[in-house]
Amino acid sequence: MDLLDGSGLRFPADQVARMMVGTGARSGPLYRQLSDSLAELIDRGELPPSAVLPPERALATALTVSRTTVVAAYQALRESGRLERRQGSGTRVRADRGRETVSNSLLAGDHAASQFLDGPLATIDFATAALPSLDLVADVASSLTRDDYLRLTSSHHGYHLRGLTALRERIARWYSDGGVPTTPEEILITSGAQQALELVARGCLHPGDGVIVEQPTYRGALEAFSRTGSRLRPVRADEDGLDVRSLETLLRTGSPRLVYVQAAVHNPTGAVLSEDRRQRLARLVDQHEFVLVDDTSLAGTGFAEGPGTPALGSHERIVTIGSMSKLFWGGLRLGWIRAVPQVVSRLAQVRGITDLGSSLVAQEVAVRLLDHSSAASAERRSTLPGGLRTLTDLLATQLPDWTWQQPRGGASLWVRLPQGDATHLAQLALRYGVALLPGSVFSADGSTDNHTRLPFALPPATLHSGITRLAQAWQTYLERGAVDVTVTSTIT
Fold it and tell me: Where is the HTH gntR-type domain (predicted)?
C-alpha cells in the first residue's frame, strides 16, 4: 500500500475485496450489502481515517458488481458520515472520525487472522481450514486433578520464556526417539506456530534480506516475513513438495538469508516432500549460507503412516517449527521451535520483548497429550481421507471442470479454476452464503489467483451445502461476469 499525504493509506480493490469476506449483511439490495460491509470495516478501524478507497470502477470489477452498485454504496456511506470525496484525491474514510491510537499500517485487515476476529462466520466457512478437536483432548485435560494444579502453581511463579521444563523434555525425547537427537535446551515453547514464525522472522531477518518461499505457501508465513521488510522470492512446489532443482537454480543467482519450506505436510496443497528432495535439500544447507525454516505444523495429519518425527535434521542452520494445533486442537495455542541452543536463547530474548511465556496449564495438558500422539495421528488418518473423498465426489459432480492436486495429508484441497480468478469468484460466493479465500493470498507474487483452497475436515452435510452454493455462484460467475446479481441468501 502507498502512503498518501503522510497519513492516508491507499487500499487496492482486490485487498478491499478480501477484507470484506465474512462482513456485512447477506440479504437485501446489493448496494446495501456492500455499504454495510464497508461500514463494518470502517467502524472496526480496519479501514482507518484518511484511508483512500478504490475507484468505483476498480472495486466493481473486484467485487463482480456493476459500477452503479458501488456508486450507490459509496453514496450511502457518505450520507452516514463515514466517507468523504475530495476533488482530485478520490474517496476517503473521513479524517475526523477520531484520532488513531494504533498506527494505520497495522489496521489493514487483509491478513491470515482476519477470519478469526469475530467468531464463526454467518456463512458456510470455506475460508479457514482448521481441524476439529479430538475427543482425547477433553479426556486428558479433565484428568488433571487439584493436586496437579497445586504442584504446578506452587513450584513455579508462572512466567517461563522457554516453556515448561517437562514439556521441553517431552518434545526433545520425541525428536530423539525419531532419530534426531535433541536436548531440552534446543526447544523453545511458543503460543502456537504463528508466534514461532514471527519470532524466527524478527530474530533472523533484517530489512532487505532475501527470503525464498514455496509457491504457493502458508499465508501466515508470507505476512510474518513481509513485516520484516524482507524481499520474498517464490520457488515452484508440486505434488512432491518444494522443487529442489528450481531452488538450486535460484540459489545460484543470489544468496538468500532464509528459505521457508513445509516438508512434513504442506498448507495449502497437502503435499509431502519426497525423500529424495529431503536429502538434496539437506545437502543444500551444507553448501550455502542460508537458514532453513521447516514448518511442520501439519505433521501427524498425513494419510500414510510416516516416520516418528518429521524434522529434516539437526544442522545448526535448520530451524524446525512444530505445533499442537492441527494434530490435537487449535485452542491449546501451543507450538515450539527446535534449533541449536544459541538460536533458542536468542529467540527467547526476542520473545521476552512482548510475551513472558505460554500458559503453563495448557503446557501441562500438552505434556500428557504427547503421550497419545500416535493415537492422535491414527485418528486423523482414519477421518481426514473420508472428508477428502466427500469433497472430491461433490466437486466431480457439481464442478466437473475444476481440477486439483491430490493431497497426501492435511485438511485442505488446492483447487484450480478452469478460467477466471478466485478473487472475483469469492465475492459472488459470499452472496450465496459461502466464504472463500482466493489463491492469491497464498502466493508471494499473487500469481495463484486461479486457485482456491477448500477445506474438507467438515461435516458431510456442510460440505454438500457449501459446494452446492459454490456451484451456483460459479454458474452465475460464468454467465453474468461483472453484471449485478441480486441474491437473497437463506443461510442456516
Answer: 28-96
On the question of pLDDT at 108 being above 80, the answer is: no
Q: Which of 48, 124, 181 is nearest to 465 (CA)?
A: 124
**What are phi and psi for residue 293, nearest 5 degrees?**
-105, 115
| Mean pLDDT lowest among 4-8, 145-149, 304-308, 477-481 | 4-8
Fill in the DSSP letter of residue 269: T
Q: Are residues 179 and 218 in the same domain?
A: yes
| Pick from 376, 391, 402, 235: nearest CA to 305 | 376
* DSSP string for residues in 246-264: HHHHHHHT---SEEEE--S
Cell 500458559, residue located: 359
Amino acid present at 134: L
Task: Check pLDDT > 80 for residue 89.
Answer: no
* Same domain membership, residue 264 and residue 184: yes
Examine the domain organization and report whether 367 and 402 are in the same domain: no
Residues 143, 100 within the same domain = no
Q: Which residues contact 325 (CB under 8 A, 6 or more apart)?
A: 130, 131, 192, 193, 297, 332, 333, 334, 335
Residue 329 lies in a domain: yes
The angle at the Cα of 191, spanning 185 to 195, to the nearest 5 degrees, equals 90
pLDDT at 101: 45
Residue tagged 484428568 (cell numbers): 143
- Domain hosting 457: range is 124-132+380-480
